[in-house]
TrEMBL record:
Start and end residues of each Enoyl-CoA hydratase/isomerase domain: 480-605
Any one Pfam family match given in the protein's UniProt record, by short name: ECH_2
Chain ranges of the 3-hydroxyacyl-CoA dehydrogenase C-terminal domain: 191-289
Name of the protein in question: 3-hydroxyacyl-CoA dehydrogenase
SUPFAM superfamilies xrefs: 6-phosphogluconate dehydrogenase C-terminal domain-like (SSF48179), ClpP/crotonase (SSF52096), NAD(P)-binding Rossmann-fold domains (SSF51735)
Length: 781
């Protein structure tokens, strides 16, 4: 049951996006749909699905070239071709009869080893396969993706009572490793896990909002990032999903579940859908509406649920949220749960509903508490699931509050009360849905699990640590805000190198499991030192930075970088110098220093020039043949190009063909560790290059000539010209050299450092840094 080829039936929004994700993973996939009777192109719907995916924003494809892996067809001419697919997934209309009819046709042509799946979000899986053979039922497992499939980590895998456990295991492994999904094994019940609990939360939030006299905008402040949840919070999420979708799902769940679960929609919500037809983003208006003001800028108007008119409420401020700004998540959650007034009344009502319902659903929607927590985190962008949040507050505190409201405790909470246990997770232990202790099974390699064993943390600083990954491999982990690079991060990498050598470890991984690998250098520190004229200190700091980044290549042991998310500036420079890179597929990597009036000073400029000049054909002479390589490096750095995926990073030159791309971000540290162990036997320490070809004044002149033309045309600013001139000087290998020559890596590093300091001393650069720190946007001065 190895999945090497796939087929998706149904080329609508979800079907086409799932096909794109398969293509992203390198899996050839057929995309089939019906034949439109009046259209001469029998594959029109499937072709349209691919085109829609290519135009989607955010992008469905990690690299548009991957669309070539999708073979389009139709269910009349190409049904027989399903015999080649190892996995067949349907994403057609949500009607039981249509799905049953499709499965009858598919069974006649699918090979006997193919795994069969439905992407249905609501129709029970066991109902779809009634009447099919035992062999077909054995190979059938639900696969419910969340939209958009590329970006939402959750995949609910739903076996039926007839599904072979080996099929569930094989498919789950494929989904995690190849497709990069976070798998939650759900029971075949209405709504499965995430929608059952998530939609319940939305419905209850609407009811509590109106009871507390709050507005949707106020509720979104209370139930968004302040509570550790997505910025779209409750009602913005509803607008994005479609209020009609929420309406139908809630209605279906209300019909399919006991009365005490209460999926009753408020009269105001029903009016929005049934009478006003205000369905959210798809109709341009829902709880919010975008409009343009007199100044031409987009404004967000808020719905008044009493009048059903839109109002400009300006920036909505909520006292309970303002009071916890800047606090750690645990502090925020405790404070918000204990808040006073109507805001606190609302939050306790909503949170207690969520806690009660999650506990009631334990053993119903899924057999593990962690699957419920992960479904809400991966499907809705929560930082903590409901059981983790109860742990933060103290489970006995939550139980006491629920009882004070007169609620009957679900069996899980009743068992927790009887045992006196105050947390669902403790060390490597959790509890079953019946409240009995059991071993916690981490879904992936989780760094915090290692940290629970204090012996694994070898050395710790405020912003970084050295951790033993086991099997003779160390990890230099950064854990500062945005993982900005400062003294803690640099010294920790140096500590780790020394420990590898002194303690006989095999090698080193650079990585972490924060929100981003690294957003770059510590700009506030750099600016403050420049404004204080601490130039000797700055020169020493940049030298140290260069020494540490290049140490990843020139150490006596292998180093592997594991970048993901934002990998900018200095974060990219660390990555560029590693012996090997295991990158998350979602990699946003770039040398972006020109945006703040600088150039890469940690070896990034040198490294891109070296890489592109090495791509010359052997035997080519130096001179004009180098110019395309210089121009390529200049364009990449000078435009602050950032990859939109690891596949694009490879095309741009940030990653080598030999580097590894992992679809699942949570696998990269494990994979990086394996790469260190693979490199360690017979590893030979590299030596710095002395033979990098440069063009000198010829390259500088060519670039400056193009720059002046762009400046005259108004494409770049006066200060862009200054910054670009310094970049050209480094890429040319320095001025005063009128012929092609070869220089050392250290020569280019020295030029980088000189250019970095020169620019840092200029008013234009300091203005750009100040503007970036203040607004988060580049200044065009």
């Amino acid at each position: 049951m190895k999945i090497q080829k796939a087929a998706v039936i149904g080329a609508g929004v979800m079907g086409a996006a799932i096909a794109a994700q398969l293509a992203n993973a390198g899996i050839p996939v057929m995309l089939l749909d019906i034949v439109l009777p009046d259209n001469p192109d029998r594959n029109f719907l499937a072709k349209s699905g691919v085109q829609r995916a290519l135009k989607a924003r955010p992008a469905a494809f990690m690299d548009p070239a991957r669309a070539a892996l999708i073979q389009v067809g139709n269910l009349e001419d190409n049904l027989k071709d399903l015999k080649n697919a190892d996995w067949i997934l349907e994403a057609i209309i949500e009607k039981l009869d249509a799905k049953r009819s499709l499965w009858e046709r598919v069974e006649k042509v699918a090979k006997k080893t193919a795994i069969i799946s439905s992407n249905s979000s609501g129709i029970p899986m066991h109902l779809q396969i009634e009447g099919r053979s035992e062999d077909f039922q054995r190979r059938f497992v639900g696969a419910h993706f969340f939209n958009p499939p590329r970006y939402l980590h959750l995949l609910e895998v739903i076996p039926t009572p007839k599904t072979d456990p080996k099929v569930t295991e094989t498919f789950s492994e494929f989904a995690q490793t190849t497709l990069g999904k976070g798998v939650v094994v759900a029971n075949d019940v209405p709504g499965f896990v995430a929608n059952r609990i998530g939609v319940y939360g939305i419905v209850r939030a609407m009811d509590h909002m109106q009871r507390a006299g709050l507005t949707p905008a106020q509720v979104d402040q209370l139930t968004g990032p302040a509570l550790g949840r997505a910025s779209s919070a409750t009602f913005r999420t509803a607008d994005l999903s479609g209020l009609d979708i929420i309406y139908h799902v809630a209605s279906d769940l209300g019909n399919a579940t006991p009365d005490d679960e209460d999926f009753t929609l408020t009269p105001a919500f029903r009016t929005l859908v049934e009478e006003k037809k205000m369905l959210g983003d798809k109709t341009g208006s829902g709880f919010y509406k975008k409009t343009k003001g007199a100044d031409g800028k987009t404004k967000i108007l808020n719905l008044n649920l009493d009048t059903f008119e839109y109002e400009d409420q300006g920036r909505v401020k909520v006292a309970a949220v303002d009071a916890v700004k800047g606090q750690p998540l645990a502090t925020r959650v405790k404070a918000l749960y204990a808040a006073e007034g109507q805001e606190g009344e609302f939050l306790r009502g909503v949170m207690n509903d969520g806690f009660w319902y999650a506990a009631k659903m334990a053993g119903n929607v899924s057999n593990r508490l962690q699957d419920i927590d992960n479904a809400l985190k991966w499907g809705f962008g929560w930082e903590q699931g409901p059981f983790e949040t109860m742990d933060t507050l103290g489970v006995q505190t939550v139980i006491a509050n629920l009882e004070a409201e007169g609620r009957t405790l679900p069996p899980l909470l009743a068992a927790m009360k009887e045992s006196g246990r105050d947390a669902f997770y403790a060390g490597d232990e959790t509890v079953t849905p019946e409240g009995q202790p059991t071993k916690y099974e981490a879904p992936y390699f989780i760094l915090t699990d290692l940290k629970k064993d204090a012996t694994r943390v070898i050395k710790k600083r405020a912003g970084a640590s050295v951790i033993d990954l086991g099997d003779g491999v160390l990890l230099a982990e950064w854990h500062a805000k945005m993982n900005a690079l400062g003294e803690d991060q640099l010294r920790t990498v140096q500590d780790a190198h020394k420990l590898v050598q002194d303690m006989g470890y095999h090698g080193l991984v650079i990585g972490n499991q924060g929100e981003n690998f690294s957003a770059g250098a510590n700009l506030p520190l750099i600016l403050s030192q420049a404004q204080a004229d601490e130039w000797d200190e700055l020169d020493d700091m940049i030298k140290q930075f260069q020494q540490v980044t290049t140490s990843l290549r020139f150490s006596p042991h292998p180093t592997v970088a594991a970048p993901f998310g934002l990998t900018l500036g200095g974060g990219a420079e660390f990555t560029l110098h590693a012996d090997h890179v295991v990158a998350s597929a979602e990699l946003y990597m770039g040398l972006v220093e020109v945006g703040v009036g600088l150039i890469p000073g940690g070896g990034g400029t040198k490294e891109m020039l070296l890489r592109f000049t090495d791509m010359q054909q052997p035997g080519q002479q130096l001179g004009a043949t180098l110019l395309p390589a210089v121009q390529r490096a200049f364009e990449l750095i000078g435009t602050a190009k950032v990859s939109t995926s690891a596949l694009e990073a490879r095309k741009l030159g940030f990653l080598r063909d030999t580097d590894t791309v992992a679809m699942n971000k949570n696998h990269i540290l494990q994979d990086a560790k394996r790469q260190v162990l693979a490199l360690a036997p017979g590893y030979v320490q590299p030596t710095p290059r002395q033979d990098i070809p440069v063009m000198g004044d010829a390259a500088i002149g060519a670039i400056k000539s193009a720059l002046y033309g762009m400046h005259e045309g108004g494409y770049i600013t006066d200060y862009d010209l200054v910054v670009s001139g310094e970049l050209a000087r480094v890429l040319g290998g320095g001025t005063g050299n009128n012929r092609a020559a070869k220089v050392s890596e250290q020569h280019l590093l020295d030029l980088e450092r000189e250019a970095f300091l020169t620019l840092l001393g200029k008013k234009g650069t300091q203005q750009r840094i100040e503007h970036m720190l203040k607004t988060g946007k580049p200044l065009r001065n």
